[in-house]
């Protein structure tokens, strides 16, 4: 379209035509409206004055600054990232302010192991030969009932003294999600968006001043497939 003959309706028609179905397809056409629908689902809205897409509150819309983009360099090295978990070989587990994945085949004891580690972390009790600092945390379980979570916790602390057990109870919360919707993301049409669960988790984590959260297991806490990039990006953002 020649710029001095710009026409919004004609532009929309050409855009709809360009995004039309391949020859022989019986599926629904993807039109200009879909672009705005997907943009709105991603958190954008149209301004009444400019009709431009702007980010909703909570996301910066300020222009990028060159000065803000320069990488920093610490001549003597940056401070070591703190870890809250035990050490396996030379590897420290569970860095703060990061996502860690604990992966294994089904029915090999992931939940029991994580509850065991979390109990030691909450108590500040050594894990094997690894000393641990007392750290507050929360476990959210998709499959386990409250009784089963308590059973695994009890098996972990069975030979601890009373003070250690009380410390673990004080600094570790166990929540079963078996009686509520456990999804951090939900799917609407072809779009993935956050669910109310994220705000609920943030609220209890702040109230409890938790320093680590364990989600057991991830696939049960999303709508769709974690191999789907949209699903994983939305989940990681939450």
Structure commentary:
About 7% of the residues have low confidence. Strand 1 and strand 2 form a beta hairpin. Helix 4 crosses helix 5 and helix 4 packs across helix 6. This protein has a three-stranded parallel β-sheet. A two-stranded antiparallel sheet has the order 1-2. A two-stranded antiparallel ribbon has the order 3-4. The chain starts with 7 loop residues before the first helix and ends with a helix. The protein has two domains: 79 residues, no CATH class; 151 residues, P-loop containing nucleotide triphosphate hydrolases (Rossmann fold, 3-Layer(aba) Sandwich), CATH 3.40.50. Helices cover 34% and strands 14% of the residues.
Overall number of domains:
2
Distance between the termini: 42 Å
Structural class: alpha/beta
CATH superfamily of the largest domain: P-loop containing nucleotide triphosphate hydrolases
User: Sheet bearing the most strands, described?
Assistant: 3 strands, parallel
Strand content: 5-15%
- The name of the CATH topology of the largest domain is Rossmann fold
Secondary-structure element series: HHEEHEEHEHHEEEHEH
CATH class of the largest domain: Alpha Beta
Inertia-based shape = elongated
Q: In DSSP terms, counting alpha (H) and pi (I) runs of 4 or more, how many helices?
A: 8
The number of distinct β-strands equals: 9
Radius of gyration: 24 Å
CATH architecture of the largest domain: 3-Layer(aba) Sandwich
Strand order in space, largest sheet: 6-5-9
**Sequence stretches where pLDDT stays below 50 over 5 or more residues:** 21-25, 47-57
Helix content class: 25-40%
């Amino acid at each position: 379209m020649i710029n001095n003959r710009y026409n919004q309706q004609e532009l929309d028609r050409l855009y709809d035509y360009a995004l039309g179905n391949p020859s022989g397809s019986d599926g629904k056409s993807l039109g200009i409206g879909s672009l705005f629908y997907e943009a709105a689902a991603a958190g954008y809205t149209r301004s009444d004055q400019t009709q431009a897409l702007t980010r909703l509150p909570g996301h910066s819309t300020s222009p990028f600054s060159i000065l803000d983009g320069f990488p920093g360099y610490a001549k003597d090295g940056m401070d070591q990232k703190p870890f809250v978990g035990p050490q396996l070989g030379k590897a420290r587990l569970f860095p703060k302010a990061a996502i860690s994945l604990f992966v294994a085949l089904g029915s090999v004891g992931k939940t029991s192991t994580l509850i065991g580690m979390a109990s030691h972390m909450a108590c500040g009790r050594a894990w094997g030969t690894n000393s641990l600092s007392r750290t507050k945390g929360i476990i959210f379980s998709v499959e386990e009932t409250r009784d089963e979570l308590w059973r695994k916790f009890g098996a972990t602390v069975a030979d601890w003294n009373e003070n250690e057990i009380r410390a673990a109870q004080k600094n570790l919360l166990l929540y079963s999600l078996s009686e509520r919707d456990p999804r951090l993301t939900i799917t609407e049409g072809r779009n993935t968006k956050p669910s109310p669960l994220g705000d609920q988790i943030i609220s209890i984590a702040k109230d409890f001043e938790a320093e680590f959260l364990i989600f057991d297991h991830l696939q049960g806490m999303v709508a769709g497939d974690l191999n789907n990039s949209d699903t994983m990006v939305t989940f990681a953002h939450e």
